[in-house]
Amino acid sequence: MRILIVTHVVRKNDGQGRVNYEIVQAALAAGHTVTLLAAEAAAELIEHPHVRFVRIAGSRLPTKLVQYQMFAWRCGAWIRAHRDEFDVVHVNGFIAWARADVNAAHFVHDGWYRCGFYPFRLLHNLYHAYQVIYTLLNIACEKWAFRHADVIVPVSQKVAGEVRALGIGSARVQVIHNGVDVGEFTPGASERERFSLPSAPFMLLFAGDLRMSRKNLDTVLHALVQTRVDVHLAVAGILHNSPYPALVASLGLTQRVHFTDMVMDMPALMRSVDAFVFPSRYEPMGLVLLEALAAGLPVITVRTAGGAEVITADSGMVLDDPNDATALAAAIERLASDPAYARNLGAAAREVAGTLSWHAMAERYLAVYEQVHARRTAHAMPSNCASAPVKL
Q: HSE of 226 in the Cβ direction (CA atoms, 13 Å)?
């Protein structure tokens, strides 16, 4: 097949970019040719003889809102000019003003806007007003993009529900969970000294954007105050402009919370802790959650976090309310006070991650491509000795 993938970046150290990177690798291994319409791609892909990289330059106009629209217009114009060169066109959310065969839904702005935890208000201040306008525009654009795609591929059942809420029929929706590198993220020897973590206490890990309230570190900190056992917390994420060090100090947790700032070697950090806590108020499908499962960590998460749907009672703890610090504290205490229970959860978590490898994810995307290509080929079959037009 001749495959076109349209995205901003295609590389291993980016969430959505990693998904597309693995799809490209699987497609090349299967003998397909791939064109990447993107702003940036990994060097090893660009250099591959069966990869064509078409760079779409970013705009220098002010605000991401305008920059993303310019990117979408440029991509749309290129696709319309070259559409006949491809058997499958794969886009990611709203990224191009053009029809597509496959649209991977990594995030649905309508779901974020209506989830109950959306933090911005139109009349609060200029920054809030910009964020609301940005979100509403993205909602409109995503509706258009999903309605102009043959198949929509949400990254979780949670996202699939948000796609269907936009009026997209279930027959056009095929969920494919994100993948994880089960070889890179694996149980192993602890390296707490390397990360300046104390060796003795039960150590939780929280990892995420420390500037965003939806990641919900605040509830973790309030839960830590309520725990009656010796539990410490490692917090991985960029500290610049984060309000949480001040909150830690105000709660009297300075000796129990350890900020590592940005960590490049997350597998090593995960091997150095005892459990992972991820009570995100809104999450489509957190890669870091899958990485924790692969590392064999017992996971505490919440139903509002995409990815919780892959966790069973044997492989993790899923709470109902992301803001219930008391329930979170009880879950933390159970893990910290029952080592056998924690070990069993971690072993089962590792087994779950084994079903979610990057290779398995990429093969599922290729199967969708095959379905789309077969359908397009069938529609293009001659009828009454004349070629029938292909309709997207």
A: 17
